[in-house]
Amino acid sequence: MASCFGEYAIKVADSSCTASASQACRPPSLIPSTQNAVTCHYKTKLSTKKQLLITVTWSNNLMGQGLSINVGDDLSSSSLRVNTNARFFRKKKGNRTFESCNSKIEAFWDLSSAKYASGPEPTSGYYVVVVVDSELGLLLGDMSEEVITKKLKSGIPVAQFSLVCRREHFSGNPLYSTKAQFCNTGMSHDIQIRCSCEDEGLKNPVLSVCIDKKKVIRVKRLQWNFRGNQTIFVDGLLVDLMWDVHDWFFNPASGYAVFMFRTRSRLDSRLWLEEKLIQKDKEKLDFSLLIYACKNP
What we know:
By secondary structure, the protein is mainly β. 8% of the residues lie in helices and 48% in strands. The chain has helices spanning 19-25, 144-151, 246-250, 275-278, and strands at 10-12, 34-45, 51-61, 64-71, 80-83, 93-100, 103-110, 115-116, 122-124, 127-132, 135-140, 160-172, 175-180, 189-196, 206-211, 214-219, 227-234, 237-244, 257-264, 288-295. It has a 10-stranded mixed beta sheet. A 4-stranded antiparallel beta sheet has the order 6-7-10-11, covered by helices on one side. Strands 13-14-15-16 form a 4-stranded antiparallel beta sheet, covered by helices on one side. Strand 8 (115-116) and strand 9 (122-124) form a beta hairpin. The model is unreliable at 1-23 and 273-282 (pLDDT under 50).
């Protein structure tokens, strides 16, 4: 594992780049892959000190845009599923009450005016609100204040909630483009992951990762260096970047590549801390972005 202060530590200081650098990040002939699903895990801490995991999944398939919400650690079954296909327009707006983790859960959503970019997650014109035991447990969307004002009681307490992990699924060409904010006070960064293949004139496949159009890593002879990690600096944070593309080469029929970005403290000398060290700071929340990528045949 690379030392966080070793020769492979790279700093991303700004988002500026030259035209040639941008060209290296994304060839004009290569179309970015399609984002099929986005899963976000939120940690909610109620005023009663009770903590819950709320999982929100946005998906895009032949049936249209989809939304599912799960409360608790059991992700095998969703507490709420919404299909926003035009034929089921009534489901784009509504509410539902259910029980989970010995708590009363109320979910409110309105996607009837939602605007989307290239992925299944809306960018504006929507809200998703989750109420846990008469306490606001999660607020998503630029219209969340509307539901609080019109549908909920005034003075309803707001729980502490934060994003702890984000997982994205892509399929298509070996060029993956997304955005990530590594801390609450940081800016949103453009991330591009590209696997250059032999048909581009290269003798061996090469993995390149760019942040804000600046190349931060380049892995040569990828079929032999199919797993690894490297440390970069983003917004003053140490970010461990890990990759595993083993199945791309040795199990292409059903294999996925996995890329992970994970923040850690400057005081952490290792990538993974021992369990007893983690327990010393239970309130500490790190950010992680996990990307699953599959190539079309």
